[in-house]
Amino acid sequence: MRRMLPAAALAVVVTGLWAPLGCGSHGGGNQSPRDASLPEMLTSRFCGNCHTDHYDDWSGSMHAYAADDPVFLAMNKRGQRETNGQLGNFCVNCHAPMFVRQNPGKNMGQALADGQAVPEELKGVTCYFCHSIESVNPAHNNGLVNLASDLVMRGEIRDPVPSDFHKSTYSTLQDRDSLDSSTMCGSCHDIVTPMIGGAGGAHLERTFCEWNKAGFNVAGANTCASKCHMTQSNTKRSIAPKVPSAPPRFFHQHDFPAVDVALDPSFLSTHPKAAQGPQTVQTTLNAGVLRGALCVTALGGIRVVIDDFGLGHQWPSGAAQDRRLWAEVIAYSGTDPTPVYKSGVVADRMPVTSDNDADLWLLRDDMLDSQSKPVTMFWQAVTSSGNELPAPQFKPSVFSTVATHIGRSFPKDGSPVSKPFDRVTLRMRLQPIGLDVLDDLVQSGDLDASVVASVPRPFDVTLLPESPATPMLEWKSGEKSAYGTFKDPDNSLATCVGSIGLDPSAPSPPQSGVTCKP
Fold first, then answer.
1. Which of 1, 10, 259, 269 has the maximal Cβ count within 10 Å?
2. Which residue, among 51, 52, 41, 50, has the nearest Cα to 17 in the 3D structure?
3. How far are the Cα atoms of 1, 198, 422, 440 from residue 368, in angstroms, in the given order?
4. Cα gap 378→366, rounded to integer Å
5. Where is the domain boundary, 147, 169, 189?
6. Domain check: are 177 and 291 in the same one?
7. What is the pTM of this model?
8. Final residue of a domain: which of 189, 211, 245?
9. Per-residue pLDDT reduced to its tens digit, 440-481
10. Using CA atoms, how far apart are residues 108 and 497, in angstroms rounded to an integer?
11. Inter-axis angle of helices 70-82 and 435-443, to 10 degrees?
12. Strands 152-155, 167-170: parallel, antiparallel or unpaired by DSSP?
């Protein structure tokens, strides 16, 4: 049975304990002469006494921010109201798992909506939560993650040095090089909506399933952490400097970079690394996650081809119903700065869907009700349907990617641009969360309008892994094509600029839409 304390008592116990505690090591066996208490272990700041770099990374991460996120709070509040509390712990299970586990049998989602604060030591995806997991049933919604009750911290180190604060042991679940570690990530990054009334059962977030379907779940492939979300240092160094006998280890970053950014001004002001979020996201997007080509046909048509080359899942992924990834295509004639054709040109502070753009290529999920009509909030959905980039696949017995590119004509119907042009530019642009989603929450009274002002301008996704600082592709008439010429789908010759190694003339694989079912 887990050792639990009421939140009020826990806060009293924790108060005053923020002082340097046993970071030393001792001889003999993996037994601590001073077993830490549960309240101490729950408090991530205590972990920072000895694991300073790990804590510094985590404290500015989206895991630390998860329960402070005003969008999470707004959606939970609205969801509890619109479902009469039946949404329950659905959101909080992953955004503040220890808040739920320290209050068994209670609707902490409703408590949060009613104004109850999450105690500091229970906020977010904490050190204790991740490093206490002893088993995972690969299912959904963090419902079948079992925490150990022995206060032994689990990690990737096979020969942990005994400390004066807690016991430690090795576990494949926390070893970034073990396939098991991805099942731990998947417990929250694979979400099925709850059955409420006539809605529910939609496989809303499928990142873990996408990783599995992509063929990465084999020895030697990439786990969630091994190459993407927990970068390893190149050399070994001290990772617990206050433990004198600790040998040098490889350091694994705990900032979990992806595309989300913090929007809460108070969190940003107190967590400098979180304030660097936009820079981190842009660095991530410059790391070659996509490849692409911009092609122009002899008949005057434009075609864009993109390929999910550097990722282990579809893209966008995660909360793909809220993400906005789109193509900005602009054609010019001569030196005239006024475009003769444009699509996807969106002002920085405007929702991407605000303009009546018939040719807009927007990659995202749509949430649908029982009549296959779009809905805006996840508790209204019974299914989802997306047009995201498919995850990379692998040839049988050969660890090399199979082309998974998709293409789109501009204009959308494949006809030529109505006016002559001699220059075209392409940018793939990304908003981690659509401004239309935030505006909807503001209009319902659940989100403060000031939060929208914290949203960064759209990010540019480089399509040139060989030149990551170049966010834009530009085609000019008369310049040599990167790929020679080939027949485009309109049966005219096309010339292209784009990424090395991408063959825009190859047929795209059939788009399977939603490949993962709950």
1. 259
2. 41
3. 41, 12, 41, 17
4. 10
5. 189
6. no
7. 0.89
8. 189
9. 999 999 999 999 988 999 999 998 888 877 889 999 998 887
10. 53
11. 50
12. parallel
pLDDT digit string, tens, across residues 341-358: 999 999 988 999 878 899
DSSP type of residue 482: B
Cβ neighbours, 10 Å, residue 81? 15
d(CA 428, CA 357): 16
- Residue 486: both structure tokens together: 């080939």
In 34-182 the beta strands, taken as DSSP E runs, fall at 133-136, 145-147, 152-155, 167-170
Cα–Cα distance measured from residue 12 to residue 23, given in angstroms and rounded to the nearest whole number = 23
**What are the tokens at 81?**
């109201």
Residues whose CB is less than 8 angstroms from the CB of residue 447 and which lie 6 or more positions away in sequence, other chains included: 70, 71, 74, 438, 441
Closest to 242 measured CA to CA, from 426, 403, 54: 54
Is pLDDT larger for residue 274 or for residue 394? 274
Widest Cα–Cα separation across the chain: 81
Query: What is the phi/psi pair of residue 343, to 5°?
Result: -150, 140
Query: Beta strands 393-394 and 401-402: pairing type?
Result: antiparallel
Q: In terms of domains, do 162 and 306 share one? A: no
| Helix residue spans in 140-219 (DSSP H) | 180-186, 207-213
Please give the residue range of the domain that contains residue 53: 7-21+33-189
> Could you give the CA distance from residue 385 to residue 345 in angstroms, rounded to a whole number?
25
- The Cα 16–Cα 253 span in angstroms is 29
Domain total for the chain? 2
